[in-house]
Write a structure and sequence with these properties.
The chain is mainly alpha-helical. It has helices at 5-14, 55-58, 69-72, 78-117, 124-134, 136-148, 154-167, and strands spanning 31-35, 50-54. It has a two-stranded antiparallel sheet. α4 (78-117) runs parallel beside α6 (136-148) and α6 (136-148) packs across α7. The radius of gyration is 25 Å and the shape is elongated. It starts with a helix and ends in an 18-residue tail after the last helix. The structure holds zinc ion.
Length: 185
């Protein structure tokens, strides 16, 4: 009987999306499900009989012997796999939410820049990491420094931010409450 997509997912999750024989992970390898006892010899689709293996190891094209620690571990029962899968899903939703929030803040900061300077947008690819690192207030402060000096060039703003990243925030400009709390928003 074919292995269902959800069972594949559970086995891959249990084994950490890693080949149990050689330890390689996507995108270096394509993962498959290996039957410890082959189906042809009566092996079942019970989770205890299934291992994550890369294509090369699974099809015997690799020299790796099935002796890794992972293989000696007692497999996790399926009830726990469901819980692990649910936690993985929750974690993905959390990351997605966080990503959306970073995007929202980046747009806000960029709007501030365009409003004050009539200039083109700042590249979110460069802007977002600084927002994550310093928070809104510090990034806007860097923009204000550029605006006050009438250097209305995004590259100057990023130069200031890079200086702060490499040499530390100037303490005279900031109190210690500049970091936004992503959890609250
Ligand atoms: Zn492998």
């Amino acid at each position: 009987m074919a292995i269902s997509a959800s069972l594949r997912w559970q086995i891959f999750s249990r084994d950490g999306f890693k080949c149990c024989y050689c330890g390689k992970q996507p995108p270096d390898v394509v993962l498959e499900i290996d039957h410890l006892v082959p189906v042809s010899r009566g092996g079942t689709n019970d989770s205890e009989n299934l291992r994550t293996a890369c294509m090369a190891c699974n099809r015997g094209k690799s020299n790796n012997l099935p002796s890794s620690d992972l293989l000696n571990q007692k497999p996790i029962p399926v009830e726990n796999l469901e819980e692990a899968a649910e936690q993985t899903a929750q974690f993905c939703r959390y990351l997605e939410k966080k990503q959306n929030e970073i995007q929202r803040l980046t747009t806000l900061v960029d709007q501030y820049w365009r409003m004050k300077t009539d200039n083109a947008s700042l590249d979110p690819k460069y802007l977002s990491p600084f927002i994550v690192r310093f928070g809104l207030r510090a990034v806007i402060m860097a923009m204000d420094i550029a605006i006050n000096q009438n250097i209305l060039d995004g590259r100057y703003v990023f130069g200031i931010l890079r200086n702060w990243r490499d040499y530390g925030l100037p303490s005279h400009l900031f109190s210690n409450d500049i970091n936004i709390d992503m959890e609250k928003s």
